[in-house]
Write a structure and sequence with these properties.
The chain is mainly beta. It has helices at 2-11, 169-173, and strands at 17-21, 32-34, 37-38, 41-44, 46-49, 74-77, 87-91, 99-109, 118-125, 150-157, 165-168, 182-189, 194-195, 198-208, 226-227, 231-233.
Length: 239
């Protein structure tokens, strides 16, 4: 009897839950507030903001009123210091072996970059250790000797005005972003690779190994650019 029960449990599928993180229920006093945790994930160097808030009228430009794909809020972030750690989110320390899959999200560079492209890098880490310890100059990740795989992908935004761009990780990177403990997002501007802030919205993650959350569900829409395994190029003046 016990052997049969053990065999059935072995065959049972892993509990997974898909969650859309839209940040819309979070309060934003004065239009902007730092974010440290949300939907069972911890966040670093990120803030929730309401693009159409009157408090931000002279802080952000009308070029960024479209950041919130689902109204009213979106996420904004960048590096803490030039060349330092980027905006990130992941499983909280002490949460055991829980992991998640990054399925898709919307992203755009803030304001109206002129005279140079903005490259948005996405790093996926399958270890709870600090990603900044493995990322060197020019945002190249060195995972030698760590016994793990670090997933990397990027998208290029030409200079000019942009609408939010829908990133579908499996389709664009040609690999599944599963088994993640954390994700880091950084953006470089121009040939000098200066830090540039980006806004995100409607992150879709699949919690694995007993994670929790609620699938809010939404229709997928957006334009698809042309890309390859490593990178995606946004075409036109809006993606």
């Amino acid at each position: 009897m016990h052997s049969l029960l053990g065999f059935l449990l072995f065959l049972a599928p892993t509990l997974t839950t898909t969650t859309t993180l839209n940040f819309d229920t979070l309060p934003t006093p004065h239009g902007l507030t730092p974010l440290t945790s949300y939907a069972n994930l911890t966040f670093t160097h990120a803030s929730v903001f309401t693009p159409l808030s009157p408090s931000l009228r002279y802080i952000i430009t009308p070029n960024d009123y479209n950041c919130a794909v689902s109204s009213p809020n979106a996420l904004i972030g960048g590096r803490d210091v030039e060349g330092g750690r980027g905006m990130g989110f992941g499983i909280a320390e002490g949460e055991g072996k829980g992991t998640f899959e990054l399925q898709q999200f919307w992203v755009k560079p803030m304001d109206f970059p002129e005279g140079g492209d903005v490259r948005v890098h996405v790093f996926g880490y399958r270890s709870p250790s600090s990603p900044i310890e493995r990322r060197g100059a020019n945002d190249e990740v060195d995972d030698e000797g760590h016994g793990e795989e670090v997933l990397k992908w990027h998208v290029d935004f030409p200079a000019g005005y942009h609408l939010p761009f829908l990133v579908k990780m499996d389709e664009y990177s040609k690999q599944s972003w599963t088994g993640l403990r954390s994700v880091e997002i950084v953006a470089d501007y121009g040939e000098q690779k200066l830090d540039w802030e980006v806004c995100l919205d409607d992150l879709v993650v699949l919690f694995e190994d007993g994670g929790s959350g609620a699938d809010e569900g939404r229709e997928e829409y957006g334009r698809v650019g042309r890309g390859d395994v490593e990178g995606q190029v946004v075409l036109g003046d809006g993606g």
